[in-house]
Specification:
Length: 207
Amino acid sequence: MLNNGYLEDIIVGRVLRSSTTGFDCGTHSTRLDDRHSFGAFVEVQIANSNLIYAIGLIYAVRVDDDPLVSELVRADTVEENVLRDQRENRLIPVEISVINVGWRDNTRTVAGLAPRPPMSLSDVVACAPEVVRDFTDKRDFFRLVLNASEVPSDDLVAASLRYAAATAYGETERETFITESGRKLVRLLGNDLKRLGHLMELIRPSR
């Protein structure tokens, strides 16, 4: 059981709508941080189970429209204090889209779709580093993301690897993790050299 303070530290949002392949969750703009990044790993309890969690990747973050925002963007000039108040104090709604890539229980992580989607208003939380490491060490989720037509799949695979390397692997392990991931991608995309080359550029560590 998570205490309220810890949950507040890792919560990403609450489910708005869901299916077996993914879900959307909502939060507000003042809470946006690294937990809401493109390619971040998140998890949520599936319906009618307190043991199984769906694991997903964030692939889109949208800041929703607001009547006051519509007025401000049409104004010739806007005072800085008005902009600051709008950004920091108004509860601008944010919607986050997630693709399901796996699930876990108390003993294992598995790549693939969870048995059921989560229920509305369920808490979506950032995956713990040990969950991210166990899940990404197998690299079995690559195929599911690469074949997903509804997401920017190549960029999402690359972003998920960067996120995992930064949050779940030690500094001396990151290069090996990225190298092994590249080898897995070669096996999956060996017949599509153009796409493979693009992905290799995306995952190449910056120097």
